[in-house]
């Protein structure tokens, strides 16, 4: 089965005050480039999830969200409908501490019969839906949830009882939604603030 990666980069970044994808990391790469580099390493092809096609050529092929503004579940379904026989490694663009070790653990923990695999949140023990592997077998549950106006992929993963793994590092999936979150991700290095 082909594995594609979907980098979720279509949010509005309201709390950050600017597009989180464009934030510069201490190594000089943007947060989007960091996430795309990881996505390419662990998939056959990496795609960007966007609300619409960008005006400038994007750094990766784009899956346009069929339901823009409705959250990540619509983006995940849009990708699955684009390539229905592939498994999708879904990665949020706002995870500055995401690393190869975390993705290796996620993929190594998947069994062939799993409809999805996710990490157990270090905060509440629930599934982390935005660094997870979604397989075609989960699509009916996602579509049912959508039909019933459920827009939260975490609720779907919780209800379907997918395989949950322990995080190799408790802060690997800490997201950066505000300038303070971003600064806390790299406390000992100079970096671009929002």
How many separate structural domains? 1
CATH topology: Spore Coat Polysaccharide Biosynthesis Protein SpsA, Chain A
CATH H-level superfamily title: Spore Coat Polysaccharide Biosynthesis Protein SpsA, Chain A
What proportion of the residues form beta strands (DSSP E)?
Answer: 15-25%
Tally of separate helices: 6
The beta-strand count equals 7
Mean pLDDT: 91
Helix and strand sequence: EHEEHEHEEHHEH
Sheet bearing the most strands, described?
Answer: 7 strands, mixed
- Determine the structural class based on helices, strands and strand pairing: alpha/beta
**Widest beta sheet: strand line-up:** 3-2-1-4-6-5-7
Distance between the termini: 40 Å
Low-pLDDT sequence parts:
190-194
Q: Based on the structure given, which CATH architecture is correct?
A: Alpha-Beta Complex
Indicate the overall shape.
Answer: globular
How would you describe this protein?
By secondary structure, the chain is of the alpha/beta class. It has one domain: Spore Coat Polysaccharide Biosynthesis Protein SpsA, Chain A. The chain is 28% helix and 19% strand. It contains 6 helices and 7 strands, in the order βαββαβαββααβα. β5 and β6 (127-134) form a beta hairpin. The radius of gyration is 16 Å and the shape is globular.
Quick structural overview:
This protein is an alpha/beta fold and 194 residues long. The protein is 28% helix and 19% strand.
SSE map:
Elements: E1 3-8, H1 31-41, E2 45-50, E3 62-64, H2 72-82, E4 87-92, H3 100-108, E5 116-120, E6 127-134, H4 139-147, H5 153-160, E7 163-165, H6 179-185
Parallel strand pairs: 1-2, 1-4, 2-3, 5-7
Antiparallel strand pairs: 4-6, 5-6
